[in-house]
Structure formats: structure tokens, C-alpha cells
Design goal:
The protein has 22 helices and 18 strands. It has 509 residues and is α/β, with parallel strands linked by helices. The chain has a 5-stranded parallel beta sheet. It has a 4-stranded mixed beta sheet with strand order 1-2-4-3. The chain has a 3-stranded parallel beta sheet with strand order 5-8-9, with helices on both faces. Helix 8 packs parallel to helix 18 and helix 20 packs parallel to helix 22. It binds adenosine-5'-triphosphate, magnesium ion and zinc ion.
Length: 509
Amino acid sequence: MLIGVKSMSLLGINGYLVDVQVDVGNGLPSWDVVGLPDTSVKESKERVRAAIKNSNFNLPSKKIVINLAPAYTKKEGSFFDLPIAVGILFDLGIIKNTFDNYLFIGELSLDGTLNRINGILPMCIEALNLGIENVIIPYENRLEAGVVNSLNIYPAKTLLDVVNHLNNVEQLSSFATDNASLFSNANSYNLDFSEVKGQENVKRALEIAAAGAHNCLLIGSPGSGKTMLSRRLPSILPDLSFDEALEVSKIHSIAGVLPSDKSLITTRPFRSPHHTMSTSALIGGGKVPKPGEISLAHHGLLFLDELPEFNKSALESLRIPLEDRIITISRTSCTLTYPCNFMLIASMNPCPCGYYGSKEKSCSCSQDMIEKYINKISGPLLDRIDIHIEVQQVKYENLNNLSPSESSKDIKKRVDLAREIQRERYKDYNIYSNSELTSNMMDKYCKLDKDSQNIMKSAFEKLGLSARAYGKILKVARTIADLEQCENISSNHIAEAIQYRSLDRKYWR
Ligand SMILES: Nc1ncnc2c1ncn2[C@@H]1O[C@H](COP(=O)(O)OP(=O)(O)OP(=O)(O)O)[C@@H](O)[C@H]1O
Ligand SMILES: [Mg+2]
Ligand SMILES: [Zn+2]
């Protein structure tokens, strides 16, 4: 008899329903899987057979045909072990009741235990969308699945537990997460700006970056605190909303990096890939496609420490995702997209020796070497960075100062207010922050008075700013005005914004 067992697979960051049709018939003993399975699905044979036997069920030598529908999408992963085993055991009469409103997801070990799998969260969300009521999942995935708490989530440890549940011998207990409490201690970063002594101007620039969601670049000598400062940026960004947290968690679930003791990621991600990382690990892809670092940084920060050390092709590959905020990965069988709406923070030394412009040590590089070093970062990437921040070594008086600096919590209050203003102003457009302003919108929202125009003009003449700087200065000035809750941009906003374009100057510093 042919039986259909509902299961799920993944396409991009979403689950989609797969009907696992199992037929156990008479004929030469065999095992066939059809419906575009990849090798990991084909390997289910050994796991499922052993798991059934080791759960003390008798598996007669029969012709077993498994069809995964719809047939036109490639099925990857080992999530189908459980639905295949359930289908076989039903056909053999070992499972006695039908299970129309059930979804089964799980990989089996040879001994019949269910293993934790990746991507359970998007699958459960899709199950809810489809109106499925009951989902059986591996016990180790319960925290993640329990977030979708209007489903009956049944975590199971073994295949035998699943059979006993379906036969009403012993019911599995359902599991749900208390989602409100997950957020009660959200945004509890253990790093805080109060730990950074001095550096008030850098903190100010980072506050502006956070307030307008501007990509930024820190430039300074070794040990000046670039890494320390960058790591604290998430602590002043607005809290994640529940929907954002779900999206972030889905991506981490698929990539298999959701911590096993966590239901959801409730704080903004901070990803800092090393400069030796491959382009596919950075942007996503691979044989079995996985989200890359840029997608793991979705709704959070991507930190590229020592930017010029990254290879050119990796930096080039960031251009389109920085613009589109999604990444498309082409495969032979299909095209996948992953979201990657991240804020970029990068750091670099000012020159190869690291001390150009430093007040501590003198630089030993030639002008030529310095230019070559800066040119490692291509213009199109620089085009996507609104704020350049020069970081000087902290002064000894400041290091020695025992009075605490302003806390991240207090800085964040101002950031939140400025973000609120932007949300309200741009509510009819599909944007949320000043960093996303198009030139048409800048004409409308970044008007300059006479004084501001004069300052801008003389800055271009005296500093030799490149044309690229113009729009960036307007956007950043808009954010500075928003932090002060000023409706109009004034000359002091423009004057401050001009300072954040170091690398656009003809002779910088
Ligand atoms: N303003 C500061 N307040 C307190 N500690 C600081 C400050 N600046 C630097 N430090 C200390 O110096 C250490 C080095 O800073 P950090 O690693 O952030 O420098 P960096 O600019 O990233 O250097 P590199 O170019 O070598 O990567 C920090 O871990 C911290 O202990
Ligand atoms: Mg560093
Ligand atoms: Zn140098």
C-alpha cells in the first residue's frame, strides 16, 4: 500500500513541504529513492534499515520504493530518515493509526535515536503557514522548534518513541517556548562602551553610524583600540524585533550555528570573519549551499578587521550584497537567495607600517607605499562606506582616569530616538534609515542653507574632496541633525560630517 508522509526540505531560508511516499511491495528485495534525492538522501537506506532493526522491529526483505514529491526540486539533507521509517512501519502494519495532520522531520542514528538537524526553525514556521497541527522533531531541536508555539511540537528521542506515540501506547509530551521571556533579557551584551577610556570623538562617530545605520571604517595605528571599539557597536544598536529575531535565527538554524541551548537569537549578530576566509564562506554557497558570513550578519554587524588584508575578489564580492541586501547563489538545479541586510564596520591601519599620522611613532613608509596600501580597497567598496573614523592612541591621562565613561545604555537611548525620527520620516518609502537615502530623496530631505553650502564649497576646494564625498556628507549630516532632533540640517552638522571623509581628501590627514 502506498502511504504519504509529510516532511520538509529547505530552499534558501524557507522550508517547503515534501511528501515522502513509501511503497513496500513484493518483488525482488531492493531500495529505490526517486524524486531528485542527493547522496545524503540516498544514504538514508543504511540508517533507516539499521534504526528499524535496532528498535526491535522486523524488516522483511521486500521491494521498497520511496518517492519524494514534488519531484522537480533537488532534495538535500538527512531530514527524511524519520518520515521514510514511519512510512515503512505503517506499510508493514507496525504503526496502526494514520497521521494526516502530522509532519515528521529527523535524521536517524543506526541505533534508532533521532539526531539534531539544521534548519528546523524555518521548517516549523512553514508548517504553521500550511496549517499543519502536529510536528515530530528530534528532541535536541526542541528549544528552537518550540518558538513556533502555536504548533504542537513533539520532541522525540528515538524512533520507538515516535511509534509508541502514534500507536497511543505512550504519548510524547508537547513542548512550547515562552517567547516573551526570551526577550526580557535581550540586548544584554557583555561588552560596554563604558569600558573604553577617552576616545570621545570615536565614540561620537560610532553613535552617528549606529543612529543612521551608516557603514563605517576605522583607521588607526596598532593598539589604538579599533577592535575594542568595533566590538561594542552592537551594544548601542536598536533592539531586535521579534520578526527580525525569527529571521536571524532561521539563517543561523540553516547554517547549523544556532547554539543548542538557545531558542532564538535575540541580540544583533556580530560576525568577524578572518581575512583568510574563502569567498564562498564569506558570501555563501558551497556544494551543499549554506548561508555565508554576510547572511549570518543579517540585521547585525559584519566586522572586517584589517580590511586591506582581505583578498580583492572577496571584497569585490561584497559590492552587490551591500547594495541589494540579498545574495543570490546560482546552482545547477536552482537559484537560492539569502538575506544579508547588515551594517559594515571595517578597520585598517593607515599605512603598511601602521603609524602614518600617529602622534606616538613616525611612519617609515613612502607616499607611494601608502597610496598602494589604501588602493587595495577598491573605490566601489569605499563608495558604500559613509563614515571614516580616525583613531588615535588613547592618551595616558585618559587611561589612568578612574571615572567611568558613558554607558552603552545611555548612548543607545539617543540612537533609538534618532532611528524613530527616521522611521517616521521615511514611512511611505521602503527605507528605514538615512544610509539608504537615494539622491532624489536627498534633494528633498537634505536641503542646505546658504551657510552650509559655503562650508561644503570651501571643504571641497581646500581639502580636495572627491565627488564621492558629497552625498555621504549629506546623509551623515542628516543623521547628526536627527540626533539633535533638528528638522533642518545646519552648518555645524555639515562641518562635523565633513570630518568623516578622511580617505576622500587629496592628501589625507
Ligand atoms: N581607549 C581604551 N580604553 C581602554 N583600553 C584600551 C583603549 N584602547 C586600547 N585599549 C587596550 O588595548 C588593547 C588593544 O586594542 P585593540 O586590539 O582594540 O587595538 P587595535 O587598534 O585593534 O590594534 P591592531 O591594529 O593591532 O589590531 C585592548 O584590548 C585594550 O585592552
Ligand atoms: Mg585590531
Ligand atoms: Zn607607515
